[in-house]
Amino acid sequence: MVDRLVNSEANARRIQMVESCFGSSGEQLLIPGRVLVGEGVLTKMCRKRPKPRQFFLFNDILVYGNIVIGKKKYNKQHIIPLEEVQLQGLEDTPHTRNGWLIRTTAKSFAVYAATSTEKQEWMAHINKCIEDLLRKSGKKRSDQHAAVWVPDSEANVCMCCKKTQFTMIIRRHHCRNCGAVVCGPCSPKKFLLPSSTKPQRVCLDCYDGLSSLNNQQNKTNANSAQLKATNSADDSDGSDGDEEEQDANKTHDEPKFYGDATEKTSSDDK
């Protein structure tokens, strides 16, 4: 399906077109073995409000950016390696429909398609690309993902203390571990999370839980090291026995997906 497009001229032209739309602010996308699988507009749930974003699905990465001029110019390019991605469907609500979560180690967010059919197509194609990529690389799915931030509009009061009301002066903050909207006094501390290289702001509830878990792990490691030292001392005393090793919602064009079995070869040249 996708493999037949790897060295095709049609695929190269499509990727070069995407590069030109991002201009000099974007990264080079045309590399050997990369295929543009599909493209289309999705509504991304941002911190302030939902916003339309142009998405491009490749066989190894997911790219999206702000729409400056539809089909002509995009900016603020974001590139997500597919090996980090995990999808999770969302139930429809009176205000949001046809949505799912895109979870990654660095950032997680919700997106929404215009129709249920588009949602199914996007999720099916993304999951297929992830499965093929992991199978070929021999890598395992990532089990560490960043929290999805609660939109500012859904929290008028702090989600931690339930008392502080947000105003123009009292700012909202997001816990980087659980994604909750919290006030300053409820998020004064930072913690080194698996998805970051430096300590991040977390709420007091998460800080206490993470600290407790970290202390337990340190204690377990210390006990393991002490046991190993004791066993080594016993062996050095000449005790009998063998040594054992230690185990360590706006109108827009429908998305296009390339390389489907039903697609005619002639369509590649259009």
Please give a quick description of this structure:
The chain is an alpha+beta fold.
Describe this structure in words.
This protein has 270 residues and is an alpha+beta fold. Helices cover 26% and strands 23% of the residues. The chain is built from three helices and twelve strands, in the order H-E-E-E-E-E-E-E-H-E-E-E-E-H-E. It has helices at 9-22, 116-137, 204-236; strands at 36-45, 50-58, 61-69, 73-81, 86-89, 99-103, 109-112, 173-174, 181-182, 189-191, 200-202, 256-257. Strands 1, 2, 3, 4, 5, 6, 7 and 12 form an eight-stranded antiparallel beta sheet that branches. Strands 8-9 form a two-stranded antiparallel sheet. The protein is globular and about 65 Å long. The relative contact order is 0.13. Residues 238-248 and 264-270 have low confidence and may be disordered.
Secondary-structure topology with pairs:
Elements: H1 9-22, E1 36-45, E2 50-58, E3 61-69, E4 73-81, E5 86-89, E6 99-103, E7 109-112, H2 116-137, E8 173-174, E9 181-182, E10 189-191, E11 200-202, H3 204-236, E12 256-257
Antiparallel strand pairs: 1-2, 1-7, 1-12, 2-3, 3-4, 5-6, 6-7, 8-9, 10-11
* Cα distance spanning the termini: 18 Å
Percent of residues in helices comes to 25-40%
Task: Work out the helix count.
Answer: 3
| Total number of strands | 12
Beta-strand fraction estimate: 15-25%
> Order of helices and strands, N to C?
HEEEEEEEHEEEEHE
**Structural Rg:** 24 Å
Silhouette:
globular
What is the mean predicted local confidence, pLDDT?
A: 87
Question: Helices and strands: which structural class?
Answer: alpha+beta
Largest sheet: 8 strands, antiparallel
Poorly predicted runs are 238-248, 264-270
